[in-house]
Each structure stands twice: as C-alpha cells, then as structure tokens.
Design a protein that fits this description.
Elements (H helix, E strand, L loop, with lengths): L2 E10 L2 E11 L4 E5 L6 H9 L6 E6 L2 E2 L5 H6 L2 E4 L11 H7 L6 H14 L1 H5 L10 H13 L5 E5 L7 H16 L3 E6 L2 H5 L4 E6 L2 E7 H9 L5
Parallel strand pairs: 3-8, 3-9, 6-7, 7-8
Antiparallel strand pairs: 1-2, 1-4, 4-5, 9-10
Length: about 230
C-alpha cells in the first residue's frame, strides 16, 4: 500500500472540512477524488502534503506515519504536489520554476529531470528563460505540473489539474499524467471535471460535505461522479 488515510478529521476554526475520512491508494494506482466545491477534496490533499494539521486520524506513506513530518520532509521522502490554481513563481524563469521541484536532488538528477521534462513538454525548452508570470494560464499549469514531477516522486498529488483550462491543455496535461503512470508513479488527484479525470483513474472516491459517500472502481463510481450535483 502506497498511501493509507484512516479516520481523518480536519477543522478550520469551528468548520469541519473532513470527517472520519479513510482512503487507500495502492502502488502504481491513479485514484481520483471527485466532488463539488467544498466537498473536502483539497483539504484531504493538503493534509497528506502537511499543509494542514488533522485533529484526528493517521496518514501513512508506505507504512510510515507522516504525522510528525513537515511539508519539506514529506517532499524529501517522495511526495510531489501540484496545487490548485497554477501557483508558479511569477518573477522566476520557467527553468528555475521547474528546477525548484528537484531541489536537493543533486546536479546530475536535476539535469536528467530537466531533459526528460523538456522531451515531455517542449514548451519548457522553448520558454526556459521567460518569466513564468508572462505565460498563459495553460502554460503556467504545464510549468506547475512539471515542477511537481521534477523529483520523480513516488506519490504525486494533483489538486484540480484541469481547473480553468481549455480542452487542448486538458489533453496535454492528461498525456503528461499518462507518461507518469507509465513510469510507475502513484497518483492521487482531485477534480471537479470528472469526465476527463475518470479516463485517467484506476479507482475513485466521491466526496460530499467532508465525507466519503462512495468509493470503488471507475465503473462503480462513474454515474455518481458525473451526476449534476457533483459538477
């Protein structure tokens, strides 16, 4: 088992964001969290990354309890993270943005990572010296995604990777996710746009009101995930 979340509770002040949430992600799987805004998807991703502190429950990566580890420490042991909203360092170049994701990996691994990513995303090489803040929304998402992949993490967390993107960019991000799948990367992703995300997933969980209301294979959760109230 790559990731195990058990009975997780997350609160912001008096608001309960997650209530008794339990999920599993097997090694090599792509698991989708789908639900409406406010369902708790991002809170769960943020808890796994260490951006929020749960009030109860446990999170384990390959059997290791992550409770005492900071975000940086979680990144170092193999968790990559692409946040919602294409958060790039706007005053840094495209190349420097991507390389920050492989910080601490050593010069050789950074070069190997950059070369592989440029082969996957020719845009990176074409715009490597351009400031990331000057790119379009879709181009910034490519940079944010490449930064998350640059350390070749064991577990890749993707929070709403298709948010606000045109179909052409959704297709390109989908292709990149498939390439990471081929490398054996385990992926946990959130998405409101269930239709393209379901094409990438192995299994899924449908969330509502901070709880898991259904889990199973893509075939088992498809109808509920595509229901109007979840889009």
């Amino acid at each position: 088992m790559m990731l195990t979340v058990e009975n997780l509770d997350v609160r912001y002040g008096g608001i309960t964001a997650l209530r008794h949430v339990s999920i599993t992600v097997n090694k090599g799987e792509t698991v989708l969290l789908v639900g409406a805004n406010g369902a708790g998807k991002s809170s769960l991703i943020n808890a796994v990354m260490g951006l929020v502190s749960p009030q109860a429950g446990t999170i384990r990566l390959a059997g290791r309890d992550l409770g005492a580890l900071s975000c940086d420490q979680r990144a170092r042991i193999g968790i990559g993270y692409s946040p919602e909203g294409r958060r790039v360092f706007s005053t840094m170049s495209v190349a420097d943005n991507v390389r920050t994701g492989a910080f601490g990996q050593g010069a050789k691994k950074q070069r190997e990572s950059w070369d592989w990513l440029c082969g996957t995303f020719p845009l990176l090489k074409e715009r490597e010296k351009q400031l990331a803040g000057q790119l379009s929304g879709g181009e910034q998402q490519i940079v944010a995604f490449a930064r998350a992949m640059s350390s070749f993490p064991a577990l890749l967390l993707l929070d709403e990777p298709f948010l606000g993107l045109a179909p052409v960019w959704i297709a390109r991000i989908s292709d990149a996710i498939r390439q990471m799948q081929q490398r054996g990367t385990t992926i946990l992703m959130t998405e409101q746009m269930a239709r393209p995300a379901l094409k990438l997933a192995t299994r899924g969980y449908v969330m509502r009101g901070g709880e898991i209301c259904r889990g199973g294979t893509v075939a088992e959760v498809r109808d509920l995930a595509l229901a109007a109230e979840y889009l």
